[in-house]
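Two proteins were folded this term; both appear here.
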Amino acid sequence: MRLQTLGLVFGCIISVMSGASPDALAEPDARFAEHVLGNPKAPIRIDEYASLACPHCAAFENDELPKLKADYIDKGKVYLVFHDVPIWEIATKAAMLTRCMPSDRYYPMIETLYRLQSVWAGQRTETGQLDMLKQQAKFAGLSNDQINSCLADTQLEDGILQEQIDSAKPPLSITMTPTFILNGDPKNRVETADYNELKAKIDALLKK
């Protein structure tokens, strides 16, 4: 799906408290850590740039990712790193909730949201979308307090939106979802949910 031009420029707001030590300020936010599917020692890394509300991304997750896992990820040839490119506000809220999950439930939550995308993203109103999204997060193990706190976290939201802004800039220049970048080379990309095209790229790299 081609990304829409953002009407507002979002920035990552960093709040520095008086008296905070440099070590405390330098501590990374675990919610922005990379989540790896597969063995990070595999020879091929695939960075997936996708939106949780994108139907094409859901089609890849539901229909093609199982093939990628069986052919390459489970065999230690490929590992996958997911990046949020939320094309609508509800996709940003969905991304926030995945970041608030324990690390071992991050990918299962993504899988659930894609599988049930039509249920929550398909609601006619934003309120209905958000209510259904909260319900899925609750089913995944978050309490009501955790869900509300997560969705109210402006630092988390700003960080996700900043990642989207950064991904749109060179050298990545992400303009479509899903987009797959292989082995960190922006020139070696696939901008489709077609597994055969991705497979051809992987096989070519494995032969080198």
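Next, the second protein.
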Amino acid sequence: MTYGRFKNLTSALLIQDVTLTEEEEELLGLLEYAYSRVAMEANSIHLTVPTPYGYKIARQITEEQYIRFPELPENDDSIMDIDETLIPAVSRYICSFISVNKAQFHELKAFEIIRDYNQELESYIEKLEQYGYLTELNTENQSGSVMLSVP
């Protein structure tokens, strides 16, 4: 998803509540904060790196795996630097930061998206350990959730 479409999504989630700021620096600040929350909570495949060198690291998940912070977009055509499945969580966190009427609702939705993502990833890892290999990785189902399958 591009940053421009992400802004449209976030703005739409706030309809009948508040208006998303059009100030780019404010939006990037909100995005950076939301990215940080997701990087600290989700075991993102896209953000996993084997070394902390050359990255701004959010946290270490194993001896040889780290979760890096996502890079901010440069313009509306930039691709969001996070797993496609986690983009709604980022959007929901931004909504929770500025919502007048639905802050807790948006935060709960972000939590649910991240929880579901982490559970699917954990299931994938268990199957990988059980079978030793996978036939498909990062196949998305109809809801946009990552589906991980074994032979």
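Residues 135-151 have pLDDT under 50 and may be disordered. The first strand starts at residue 48 and ends at 49. These notes refer to the second protein only.
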